[in-house]
Design goal:
The strands form 6 sheets. Strands 2, 3, 4, 5, 10, 16 and 17 form a 7-stranded mixed beta sheet that branches. This protein has a 5-stranded antiparallel beta sheet with strand order 12-11-21-20-19, with helices on both faces. By secondary structure, it is of the alpha+beta class. It is built from 27 helices and 21 strands. Helices cover 39% and strands 18% of the residues. Among the domains are: 111-189, no CATH class; 310-670, Beta-lactamase, CATH 3.40.710.10.
Length: 678
């Protein structure tokens, strides 16, 4: 019997067959085309890796192009976590690797902040970066941040499946490396540098063992070419959590990025820091690269030129150190001696700082290896006295008092006052002139500056009271920040308001007498004092200080930013009273308290000495000067805690002036107009 074919059934069968074929075809396409590489890698044992290519940090140079700091290429032994964890026994590999390093005297990176042996405890000198990493680790695994170190070790031993037949010391070795790798993973950081800046022998010793996932990669490290200007230059280090929040949205910053932590390195971080590149490649299970998939070149950082002159900086630091050493060799048995000091050298016709020296200082190696000892040293070698130390100015303040008296009409250029030794206007406070029981005789204002006569300034200050003096000091920029790019203190300007609001006391006549000669509650930084002396020298312009000459591109072909010498304020001097101050300062150098050093000096110098008396410690010495007197170019301020008299510090300024006016290397700085007579 013939049956007729059901057309609709045939159509349905064909449609189902076509659907099945299309599903299989789509699956095959996905497997072979879209995901073919992944499956091929899985079968062949290859892995796709993406790595960061670190950018070189820009260099820091002096005004003449001498390099202070640059980035050198180093070789790091790194561990690729992905490849290591594919090994049969990762913990055994890690333990063997650590023991190989220890047996061969190879330092390796283990920042896990727990002691290396039982009884386990957190390290006493844990820094902020270690603390931040540990907190991140605790948060990621839900651990109590108050967990005992011994309990943490037990938890980690179980968590990382470390064989309990191993000793606690061996387990701690493994934990240190597993912790580093875990932190890298949590914070999405690529390879862990097990051994940084490895030499050829260290690399050979480790690589010849054939550890899985252990390779050598290049990176960069800061190299310091000079032991000078450490307080100014600063240093780099891993960012902490607060710094990461500041930089995380900027290109090229990751949680383990090295950034400037102090000084110039920190101030100009975003210029010095380059932009990292990246490379994506395939590798086999042995870690050998089998192909490059993509590559982005790293962009090096810009180069920062400072206004500092390395030659002058070196002379200033060496002279300051030797002078302090000499003072301490000659100190009396019960004296504390000189504790520290600072030197500032300024271009008086701009805001450029040529020297910024602080003593005691430190080396970069000491900073990296002995930070705790440095930070606990009572002499505070990490403290930058040049911009952050605050001091009574001593008699170097007398030019302020003289200027105020001239401007107020209290005296004229030729007003004379007889030094009577003791100022007897008040029964309960009768200060003496520093030469008492002798006296200076009859002096005008120039003579008073030349001889640093306290009695003269007591007399004129008592007639004015404090307000005109404080106003004049403020006009010279004393008691306010100078604008320098690194950290600086504001200082204190003694006023009625300050004493009432801060000290809760009224102002007395004795306060005026103390303040007018540079004692009392006036506390200024050496860089403020240098600004003040520069304004006297240049006829009244107070410049914003700067250490930036310019910033150039990585290849030095383009200027990215020029430094500026902005004017902060102008000292109003329509009647030329500043010239009277200059005459007095010239007399100090020629025939006064600095005559022994500058009396017959071939370049005319204007100077002032200061001695800050103390009842509890040795006197602080202050010395200021500028030169040449008739064509001012540079100003110098020297402060030494426990340095005795300011005149004892004049030799430091002389050493600097010798180099500035003599050496051919500094002819550009001096305008080539002066040279010392040999």
């Amino acid at each position: 019997m013939n049956r007729s074919l059901n057309t609709s059934r045939i159509v349905c069968i064909i449609a189902i067959m076509m659907l099945i074929v299309s599903i299989y075809a789509s699956a095959l396409y996905e497997l072979q085309i879209n995901k073919g590489e992944n499956y091929l890698q899985a079968v062949s044992g290859t892995v796709t890796m993406t790595e960061t290519v670190p950018a070189a940090r820009g260099s820091i140079l002096d005004r003449n192009g001498e390099v202070f700091v640059y980035s050198k290429t180093v070789y790091n032994v790194v561990i690729n976590r992905t490849l290591l964890m594919k090994a049969d026994s990762p913990n055994s590999v890690i333990l063997d690797l650590c023991k190989t390093a220890i047996e061969n005297g190879i330092n390796y990176v283990d920042t896990f902040p727990v002691t290396k042996s039982a009884p386990f405890s957190y390290v006493a000198d844990m820094d902020s970066t270690q603390r931040s990493r540990l907190d991140t680790y605790f948060e990621y695994f839900g651990l109590d941040d108050e967990i005992l170190a011994s309990d943490l070790i037990s938890w980690m031993r179980e968590h990382y499946d470390i064989d309990y037949t191993l000793s606690m010391e061996d387990a701690r070795l493994i934990i240190g490396v597993r912790y580093e790798m875990e932190c890298q993973l949590i914070m999405n950081i690529p390879d862990y540098a097990f051994c940084e800046d490895a030499d050829a022998n260290e690399i050979s010793v480790i690589l010849e063992q054939g550890y899985p996932g252990v390779t050598v990669k290049t990176s960069t490290e800061r190299e310091y070419t000079t032991p000078y200007a450490m307080h100014l230059l600063g240093y780099v280090g891993k960012m902490n959590s607060d710094q990461y929040e500041q930089y995380k949205d900027l290109e090229g910053y990751y949680v383990n990025t090295d950034i400037g932590r102090e000084g110039v390195e920190a101030t100009f971080e975003e210029y010095l820091h380059g932009i990292d590149g990246s490379i994506t490649y395939t590798t086999n299970t042995n870690g050998n690269i089998t192909g490059i998939l993509s590559e982005t070149e790293a962009v090096a950082g810009n180069n920062v030129y400072l206004t500092i002159d390395i030659g002058l900086q070196a002379i200033a630091e060496e002279s300051l150190a030797s002078t302090i050493k000499s003072i301490n060799e000659d100190k009396k048995e019960n004296d504390d001696g000189a504790q520290g000091g600072a030197v500032i050298v300024r271009d008086v016709n701009s805001g450029e700082v040529l020297v910024s020296a602080s003593y005691p200082t430190y080396s970069i190696d000491e900073l990296l290896t002995s930070y705790t000892e440095l930070s606990e040293d009572p002499l505070e070698p990490l403290f930058n006295r040049a911009t952050q130390g605050v001091y009574n100015p001593g008699s170097t303040f007398k030019m302020v008092t003289a200027f105020a008296a001239l401007k107020e009409g209290t005296i004229t250029r030729y007003t004379t006052i007889e030094d009577k030794g003791i100022f007897t206007e008040y029964p309960d406070y009768q200060p003496k002139c520093w030469v008492y029981p002798d006296n200076h005789g009859v002096l005008d204002v120039v003579g008073a500056l030349e001889n640093s006569c306290n009695y003269f300034f007591y007399t004129v200050a008592d007639k004015m009271d404090i307000d005109p003096i404080a106003d004049a000091a403020a006009k010279f920029g004393l008691g306010s920040k100078t604008g320098i790019e690194i950290a600086e203190a504001e200082g204190i300007l003694a006023t009625r308001e300050y004493k009432k609001e801060v000290l809760g006391e009224g102002w007395w006549a004795a306060d005026t007498l103390l303040t007018c000669i540079g004692q009392g509650n006036n506390y200024f930084t050496p860089i403020q004092i240098a600004n003040y002396i520069s304004a006297i020298a240049n006829d009244g312009t107070v410049y914003e200080t700067t250490i930036l000459k310019n910033i150039k591109s990585a290849d030095y072909s383009e200027t990215i930013l020029e430094g500026e010498s902005n004017v902060l304020k102008e000292v109003d001097d329509p009647y030329g009273y500043l010239s009277v101050l200059r005459q007095g300062m010239r007399a100090v150098a020629e025939t006064g308290t600095a005559e022994s050093v500058f009396g017959d000096y071939p370049v005319k110098v204007a100077a002032k000495t200061g001695t800050v008396q103390s009842e509890t410690s040795d006197n602080t010495g202050v010395f200021v000067c500028y030169a040449p007197y008739d064509n001012p170019q540079i100003a110098i301020t020297v402060v030494v805690e426990g340095g005795g008299s300011g005149s004892a510090l004049a030799g430091i300024a002389k050493d600097i002036l010798d180099v500035y006016f003599e050496a051919d290397d500094y002819s550009a700085s001096s305008g080539g107009e002066y040279s010392l007579i040999q």
